[in-house]
Amino acid sequence: MMRSLFSGVAGLRTHQGKMDVIGNNIANVNTVAYKSNSVTFQELMYQTTSNASGANQETGRAGINAKQIGLGVTTGAINTSITTAGASQSTGNPFDIQITGNSFFIVNDGASNYFTRAGSFYVDGAGNLAMTSNGFNVMGWQEDPNEPGTIKQDTVTPLKIMSPANMVSEPEQTTEAYITGIIDKNSTGVSSKDGQILNISFYDELGYSYVAKFALRDYKADGSPMGEGEYRMTVADLIDSTTNESIIGEHPVDLGGAQEITLKFDTKTGELIGINGGTDPEQKIAMGVQMDSMQSKVNIAFDTVTMYDNNGTSTVYGAAGDYNGNYAGRKVGDMSGVAVQQDGKIYATYDNGTTKLLGQIAVASFSNPSGLEKIGENLYQTTMNSGQFDGIGKDVTADGAGAFKTGVLEMSNVDLSQEFTEMITTQRGFQANSRIITVSDTMLEELTNLKR
Fold it and tell me: Domain containing 98: what range?
């Protein structure tokens, strides 16, 4: 009689434990990246009142099964649905990040690494990328100092993306430029007193901007005409873009060490055939500027200038950089934005048009993610059954395993319909086990009443 009482108590206790799990799931229905738990029951143990016996070949009597009385139920396992992704919630915050796949963010409290699926991050006062809930640092890899623009996948460290060095982009001196367009021999510009004016804007090593002015003419310095298909280009002025004043008196400009050069065109094809009597149309002339902040010359290419009929108008112009826009130089840039790519690489953009790689968010993966231990605050830690973290992590996109989505958070994977159904069955199970105790008590009462 007492066995049924204890079976009922075990049933109550086990169903209460399941209800605790269900209640926790429902409570966390809106918790970021929460992974729901489920309970599996198992039999507690059995009392064998009679052992089994085998068949007797001599007497022909069959075997007898064992007689066993169960002693209740217990919790067999509490499983975490850790590989089932929750729904996506759009937030628009660039530091809200969702992982697709089964990887985990790596965060650190200053002493130990932990793991999370909750990608709600922010940049703290020290410039570190951190979790909003507890301030733990998000871990990743830094830029390789020996190979700028590439990531060195080494032991993970805190991602300091807003360091003073990252807040600005260093200036760059202009080293290449080109002059292109059409010179029309019938245009009034090349035959005028001032000539056909063209400008090249450039930067020095400190990021200061200047404008070099040049003039194209079809006549010599003494006023006599140039040869057929020939034009001379002279230095006209140098303007400080900050003050918009001429500084050529303080900082003279030259073209290959001279104040002028001669361009020679083929009068039949209109193509440039040489500079200063040479026969190489791809020859570059180095523009020199005498200033301390201008440590190298600007190489000017002319090979795309042509001499065509353009309805009496010359449309020749100059531009900094090569034909692909490289080496044009730039001013000092202030950080204007930060973006996280699908592979976790973090890039800063600057108002001078440059971008810079700041680091990469690393992730951890485990052979048995369900073996991770929940420790609260949306965090997990490794156990002997989850597999260990190697301290380095991996690229989230490695082997096509997943990717990052920015401006999106992973929500809880709790299925309310499933939880309410489980709640009903758990409630009925609890009620049924309570009846075991009630009926057993009634039977004991009848037994004690036999004495009367």
Answer: 88-169+334-410
Rg, C-alpha atoms of the chain: 40
What is the rounded average pLDDT of the residues 4-13?
A: 89
- The answer to whether 307 and 331 have CB atoms below 8 angstroms apart is no
User: What's the CA gap between 102 and 367, in Å, rounded?
Assistant: 10
Q: Are strands 176-182 and 305-306 parallel, antiparallel or unpaired?
A: parallel
Q: Give which of 422, 366, 400, 372 is closest to 81, Cα–Cα.
A: 372
Assess whether 27 and 73 both reside in one domain: yes
Distances in whole angstroms, Cα of residue 174 to Cα of each of 159, 171, 202, 203, 259: 32, 10, 6, 5, 20
DSSP helix/strand/coil, 166? helix
Domain match, 205 and 106 both: no
Domain presence at residue 57: no
Those residues with Cβ within 8 angstroms of residue 133's Cβ, 6 or more apart along the chain or in another chain: 118, 120, 377, 378
Asked whether residue 1 carries a pLDDT value surpassing 70, the answer given is no
pLDDT mean over 239-254: 95
Task: Give me the chain's average pLDDT, please.
Answer: 92
Structure tokens at 439: 């009926």
Query: Residue 26's closest CA among 36, 13, 38, 39?
Result: 36
Q: Which helix (H) or strand (E) holds 423?
A: helix 416-448
What average pLDDT does this structure show over 362-375? 94
- Look at residue 61 and tell me if it is in a domain: no
User: Do residues 193 and 293 both lie within one domain?
Assistant: yes
Q: Report the alpha-carbon distance of residue 71 to residue 75 in Å, rounded.
A: 14
Structural domain total, the chain: 3
Do 119 and 184 share a domain, yes or no? no
CB 316 within 8 A of CB 304: no
- What is the DSSP code string of 206-228? TS-EEEEEEEEESB-TTSPBPPT
CA distance 74 to 70: 12
CA–CA distance, 212 with 201 (Å, rounded to integer): 6
CA distance 180 to 150: 35
pTM for the predicted model, two decimal places: 0.79
- In angstroms, the CA 166 to CA 234 distance is 42
CA atoms of 293 and 204, how far apart (whole Å): 6
Q: Look at residue 452 in the predicted model and tell me its pLDDT.
A: 65
Q: What is the pLDDT of residues 399-437, one digit of tens each?
A: 777 899 999 999 999 999 999 999 999 999 999 999 988
